[in-house]
Amino acid sequence: MKIYIKYMVSLRCKMVVKEELRKLGLHFIIVDLGEIELMEDLSASEHEQLKLGLLRSGLELMDDKKAVLIDKIKKVIIQMIHFNDELPSIKYSDYISQKLDYDYTYLSNIFSEVNGITIQQFIISHKIEKIKELIIYNELNLTEISYKLQYSSVAHLSNQFKKVTGMTPTYFKNLKNKSRILLEEVGNQLANKS
User: Fold this and answer.
1) Where are the domains of the chain?
2) Alpha carbon 184 to chain centroid distance?
3) Which fold has domain 121-193?
4) Which of 39, 51, 109, 140 is deepest in the core (most CB within 10 A)?
5) How does pLDDT run across 101-137, given as a tens digit for each residue?
6) Tens-digit pLDDT profile for residues 80-107
């Protein structure tokens, strides 16, 4: 039985989900970002207990098919930007379409309808958070960061960074308290402005 979970975007989330499943005596085949596969079906009582246990940790069971698809889109983007060593060499739209086996226009329309922002805006938000992370780590210079995240130039990266954050990458680097957004919250600030 497959179950989809909203806001499950990190290894810590996976550990929380595994612990909740163990508490209920449930056996899992796979616990991945955003989804789990159980060996058995859930009873109504187990479903409710799992739902409540996950809510205490800020996670939600998903039942709506659109919500599940939106979560899969977000998961693909988060995986692509934050957890791969390098970005795909093909267009993001083709990559997402291939990963989910859906037409990109369909995915794009549903994503925009539900979230109030485009997939492209969501990707840019995540790229900006990745830039912040790489600046904080201080292992790469801006030229290397722009290359790693497939910007055409440092100027392009800087312009996009400033447009989203209101500050230049250099200004961000020199801040004493560098603020980042939780991965599960990235993109929400754009939707809230709309």
Assistant:
1) 2-63, 66-117, 121-193
2) 6
3) Arc Repressor Mutant, subunit A (1.10.10)
4) 51
5) 999 999 999 999 878 899 999 999 999 999 999 999 9
6) 999 988 899 999 999 999 999 999 999 9
